[in-house]
Amino acid sequence: SPCAKIAPSMLSSDFANLAAEAKRMLDCGADWLHMDIMDGHFVPNLTIGAPVIQSLRKHTDAYLDCHLMVTNPSDYVTSLAKAGASGFTFHIEVAGDGWKELLKDIKSAGMQAGVALRPATPIETVFPLLEGEEHVDMVLVMTVEPGFGGQKFMPEMMQKVNVLRKRFPWLNIEVDGGLGPSTIDEAAQAGANCIVAGSSIFGSQDPAGVISILRVKVEE
Ligand code: DX5
Ligand code: ZN
User: Is 105 considered catalytic here?
Assistant: First the structure.
C-alpha cells in the first residue's frame, strides 16, 4: 500500500486560532491537514470555504486535504485551487455523470482529485473513476454519516476498504469518522492508509502520541 498519511480534521480545532492549530498539528507529526467544507445543504452543517483556505495557506505549506460536503462541487474548483487547496475530494452522490469533467477540471487546476462515499453508497459506484486513463488519486470511505465530528466509527465500512485495496493496490484509501487508537486496527488491517481523525486527536492531552499510534498501526 502507499505510505501513511495522518490527517487531523481541523473541524475539531479552534477555528478562531486556525493558523496556530495547524502549526500545532504539524509539530505533532501530522502529514496532511483535513479541511471539511460543508455547504449546509449536502449536509446539515455549514463550515468554511475558499476564503478560509486562502487565509490558512498564508501560514503553512502543508498539504490541505479538502473534503467537499457540498451539493455543487464544480462551483468550488477554481476558487479552491486559487486559494491553495492541495487535494479536492468530492462526493460521488452529487457528481453524477458530471464526474469526468469535474475530475478533469480538478486536475487541470493543479490539485489532487479524490472521491468520497457516504455510508449507504455502494463501493462499485466509484470503480469507473479508478479504471480509466484519467482517474482519481484517492477514495475517501466515510465511516460515519458526513456532517459532524465526534460520531461513532462504522466497522461495516471496512468491507469497502477491503474490496478497494484488493483491486487497486496503488490507491490512496482514506477513512474519515470515528478514527482513533481504538478503531485504527480495523481500518489499517482492511488497507486504509490515509487516516482522518478529529476528536481523538484534538480531544487528547497527547495529540502527538495519538498521531504516532495511528501511523504505527498503518505502517505495521
Ligand atoms: C465529518 C467529517 C470528518 C470529521 C471527523 O463529516 O468529514 O472529517 O471531522 O471527526 P471525528 O474524527 O471526530 O469523527
Ligand atoms: Zn472529512
Answer: no
Q: What pLDDT digit, counting tens, does each position of 13-40 carry?
A: 999 999 999 999 999 999 999 999 999 9
Distance 189 CA to ligand 1 centre (A): 20
Q: Which residues line ligand 1 (CB under 6 A)?
A: 9, 11-12, 34, 36, 67, 144, 146-151, 176-179, 196-200
64 CA to centre of ligand 1 in angstroms: 15
Which domains are present in the chain?
5-219 (3.20.20.70)
Asked if 69 and 36 count as a contact pair (C-beta separation under 8 A), the reply is yes
Query: What is the complex's ipTM, to 2 decimals?
Result: 0.99
Q: Structure pTM?
A: 0.98
Cell numbers found for residue 204: 487528547
